[in-house]
Design brief:
The complex is a heterodimer of chains A (111) and B (112). Chain A has 111 residues and is mainly beta. Chain A is built from no helices and eleven strands. Chain B has 112 residues and is mostly beta strands. In chain B, the strands form two sheets. In chain B, strands 2, 4, 5, 8, 9 and 10 form a six-stranded mixed β-sheet that branches. Chain B has a four-stranded antiparallel β-sheet with strand order 1-3-7-6, with no helix packed on it. In chain B, a hairpin with a 5-residue loop joins strand 4 (31-37) and strand 5. The chains are: A mainly beta (111), B mainly beta (112).
Chain lengths: 111, 112
């Protein structure tokens, strides 16, 4: 089992819809969770991080964490074509500062 | 202010040659990370430097890979006797806090 798992996609949503990206992790002791966006040919950029169970909202983005079920998700409201990118989930386990990345989900937002 | 910079941006080398990849982190950032990303794949952790502590080398794929960080700033990743499977984008990131890693533009390595 991979430490961080994501569906590779592509996930296709129409402009204006909600895009839902999911990620599961294997280490129950993981403490910190991150979502990065990576445009084709570019480096990852941090969108959000979440530490506590529940929801965390930032503009059109909402991160959701459920430690009991070991999953973290990212919701993008009012999706725009410019949101089309690969979204990488990353997790920091206990007693380490090392980020473990999933393979990413490719999101396509069509007009 | 200046972000993380990496050089070269592209490197093409022949199998068996050694290569050096450079990373200049954001000034004042104490932590520096190297990752590798193969085409269509996620980021693979290679090595992590934090201040003056011994680096976490647990991600280095073989003893052909090594990295140094001089003076707590610039880092060099060295790959000896390169192989075709080493072809990838090598990304460097720096941070002052765990929750804010800033990535450089990467070095695309092609081993012929």
């Amino acid at each position: 089992q991979k430490e961080v798992e994501q569906n590779s996609g592509p996930l296709s949503v129409p402009e204006g819809a909600i895009a839902s990206l999911n990620c599961t992790y294997s280490d129950r002791g993981s403490q910190s969770f991150f979502w990065y966006r990576q445009y084709s040919g570019k480096s990852p950029e941090l969108i959000m991080f979440i530490y506590s169970n529940g929801d965390k909202e930032d503009g059109r983005f909402t991160a959701q964490l459920n430690k009991a079920s070991q999953y973290v998700s990212l919701l993008i409201r009012d999706s725009q074509p410019s949101d089309s990118a690969t979204y990488l989930c990353a997790v920091i386990g206990p007693n380490t500062d090392k980020l473990i990345f999933g393979t990413g989900t490719r999101l396509q937002v069509f007009p | 202010g200046a972000g993380v910079s990496q050089s070269p941006s592209n490197k093409v080398t022949e199998k068996g040659k050694d290569v050096e990849l450079r990373c200049d982190p954001i000034s004042g950032h104490t932590a520096l990370y190297w990752y590798r990303q193969s085409l269509g794949q996620g980021l693979e952790f290679l090595i992590y430097f934090q201040g003056n502590s011994a680096p976490d080398k647990s991600g280095l794929p073989s003893d052909r890979f090594s990295a140094e960080r001089t003076g707590g700033s610039v880092s060099t990743l060295t790959i000896q006797r390169t192989q075709q499977e080493d072809s990838a984008v090598y990304l460097c990131a720096s941070s002052n806090r765990v929750n804010e890693q800033f990535f450089g533009p990467g070095t695309r390595l092609t081993v012929l």
